[in-house]
Design brief:
The structure is a single chain. With 197 residues, the chain is mainly α. It folds into two domains: 60 residues, no CATH class; 108 residues, Up-down Bundle (AhpD-like), CATH 1.20.1290. Helices cover 65% and strands 0% of the residues. It is built from eight helices and no strands. Helix 4 runs parallel beside helix 7.
Length: 197
């Protein structure tokens, strides 16, 4: 591990693969097989040069059984959502911006680029601003997620717009997705996890 990588755990030490408990090692193996390759493919870093997990994954190792359940929800959301990938990334970046979660924004700027969102729109979303020229679905997803994460209420007019746009299942899917990334952002911010430079 390089000296720069040593700071990537924030308030937590980065756990070495050789020093994990049995439950931690099971989760580590799952994350190495799923999240690390996805991160590489998406264009962001999820491990150090000596294979220590970074981002939310290092903190998740502290509670491996609950974290494994969270990863099951993440997999189910990805497999069964009604939301397009662009809409998903609008939701995730909106949550990350509201929480000012550095690593989350770093990772999902890269994922949003792969999803085909315009770079200028991505930068505005990451800065907590609503871009012009989004699709109807992206526009409604931004408004819904922004209101949910900042005021914690959805006003009747926006609710109706979102229901018409996404249907009831789509609304539930959007709430689940936002909630997952509120949890991830909570982990990142509590442990002051930075984005790699």
């Amino acid at each position: 591990m390089t000296p720069a990588e040593n700071t990537l755990g924030g308030r937590l030490l980065l756990l070495a693969p050789d020093n994990l408990t049995s439950d931690q090692h099971t989760l580590y193996t799952e994350l190495k097989a799923t999240m690390v390759p996805w991160a590489k493919k998406s264009g962001f870093q999820a491990e150090t040069s000596d294979e220590r997990l970074i981002g939310p994954f290092n903190s998740m190792l502290r509670s491996p059984l609950i974290s494994k359940a969270l990863m099951s929800v993440t997999a189910a959301e990805g497999a069964h959502t009604e939301l397009s990938e662009k809409v998903r990334q609008v939701v995730i970046l909106t949550v990350g911006a509201a929480w000012q979660a550095a690593y989350e924004l770093y990772a999902h700027v890269a994922v949003a680029e792969k999803a085909g969102i315009d770079e200028h729109k991505i930068q505005l979303l990451a800065a907590g601003q609503k871009p012009e020229g989004m699709s109807i679905e992206e526009d409604v997803a931004y408004d819904f997620t922004h209101q949910l994460t900042t005021t914690h209420q959805i006003d009747p007019t926006l609710y109706e717009r979102a229901r018409v746009t996404f249907g009831e299942k789509g609304l539930v899917d959007m709430i689940y997705l936002a909630g997952q990334y509120m949890t991830i952002s909570g982990l990142l911010n509590t442990f002051a996890v930075p984005a790699p430079s």
